[in-house]
Amino acid sequence: MNRDKMNLPTFYSYYRSSCSWRVRTTLNWKGIDYETIPISLIKDEQKTSEYAFLNPFQVVPTLEIDGTLLTQSIAILEYLEETRPEKPLLPKDPIKRALVRSLVQAIASDTQPITNLRVIKYAGKEEWPKYWMTYNFQFIEVQLSSTAKEYCMGDEVTFADVCLVPQVYNALRVEVDMTKFPIIHRIYIKCLELDAFKAAHPHRQIDCPSELKET
């Protein structure tokens, strides 16, 4: 899209946030240009009064688009799918759509929330994220054994892949043994060959630390 910068969607994001990563991938996949405003979770910038005015949940991401502010990554994904149906990320078949949403919830509701930064800080246990990702991946692997081909749902890229990739990245960071989950790991590698996923990678974001930065 060729839009004046003033009219671009504004995306409030943190480079390593898996929720932000989901939305970045979807924006890229659908060819939506946007401006990124970094919000550092390490510096607690999500708790400032200025940002809390935009997002009362004090989390990332927030997407300002079509004259409104949207929060919560899965709600944003659904909105983009409904308003920008080109290059869909949900299958047409209702059964496949339900299976995709099941995988999305297994990641976005059952796995990511209990392994994010604020929960780890509260729990005060370094092994916490590794345990829970390993625990939940075993069930995701089973479901994928009946749905996956190239990607999570056959040969179609869907929201399941969009959500899976950031979670695997986080799992690798905490040294989850991915040899136990060959389907999950194979899909992760396959997705990262796609331009939309490559461009959304944390190490290619403007707020990524220089020592991790990739081009």
Automatic annotation (TrEMBL):
Domain GST N-terminal stretches: 7-88
Domain GST C-terminal: 93-210
GO MF term list: glutathione transferase activity; maleylacetoacetate isomerase activity
UniProt-listed NCBIfam families: maiA
BP terms from Gene Ontology: glutathione metabolic process; L-phenylalanine catabolic process
PANTHER family documented for this protein: MALEYLACETOACETATE ISOMERASE
Transmembrane segments: none
PROSITE patterns reported in the protein's UniProt record: GST_CTER (PS50405), GST_NTER (PS50404)
Protein known as: 44_t:CDS:1
SUPFAM superfamilies from the UniProt entry: GST C-terminal domain-like (SSF47616), Thioredoxin-like (SSF52833)
Recorded family membership: Belongs to the GST superfamily. Zeta family.
Gene Ontology cellular component annotations, sorted alphabetically: mitochondrion
Species of the source: Funneliformis geosporum
Superkingdom assignment: Eukaryota
